[in-house]
Design brief:
Layout (H helix, E strand, L loop, with lengths): L2 H22 L5 H16 L4 H24 L3 E2 L12 H11 L13 H22 L3 E2 L2 H47 L1
Antiparallel strand pairs: 1-2
Length: 191
């Protein structure tokens, strides 16, 4: 196993803990600070694909903010007052989505193109993560069963979308690279 994959996985887990426990203990800013620091390190480690990684992180953060905000507006989930930092969703929740995006081409690359597994992994993993967040005290559900079904359903579809966007960004970068190489190849052939 490559050391980079292990680092990516460990960083993901540590940042998840910082985000959730920070929010539960009344320090919701810890997660966004940790994710920002990790994002900067991650982009430096992956300079060749930094633009794609940043675009995927922004996409995931915006999508996560929208989806979690819907859960808040529908009163499916709530954030205790000490965990509030942003509205309707919180910045530390957005940070969790960004953190996840940084694993897609690294420690979670093994799932790529296996969309049934991605959906199941997203649904089950998402529900378990929100349930753990509820147990820790960072979020609460109005109705636990309904909440977990809603979270499962959202993540069942959301995680494959993140993978699709990642693959699209990778393909787009590859096409741009090929287009840049083409004029050089033609000029050498004409010389």
């Amino acid at each position: 196993m490559k050391i980079g994959i292990v680092i990516n996985f460990v960083a993901f887990q540590l940042i998840w803990l910082l985000c959730v426990f920070g929010a539960a203990w009344g320090y919701p800013w810890i997660g966004p600070v940790a994710v920002t620091a990790w994002l900067l390190v991650h982009l430096k480690l992956h300079r060749a694909i930094a633009r794609q990684e940043l675009m995927l992180a922004v996409f995931a953060g915006l999508m996560g903010y929208g989806l979690d905000s819907i859960l808040v507006v529908l009163d499916i989930i709530r954030f205790p007052a000490p965990a509030q930092l942003g509205y309707p969703s919180t910045l530390w929740m957005v940070s969790l989505w960004i953190n996840l995006a940084l694993t897609i081409r690294h420690s979670l690359a093994w799932l790529n193109h296996h969309y049934v597994w991605i959906s199941l992994f997203g649904g089950v993993g998402g529900a378990l993560a929100y349930w753990a967040g509820e147990r820790i005290g960072a979020i609460s559900f109005n109705d636990l069963s309904l909440g977990l079904i809603m979270v499962f359903s959202i993540w069942f579809f959301a995680l494959p979308v993140v993978y699709l966007v990642s693959n699209w960004l990778e393909q787009r970068a590859s096409n741009e690279h090929d287009q840049l190489k083409q004029p050089m190849k033609e000029s050498r052939n004409n010389a």
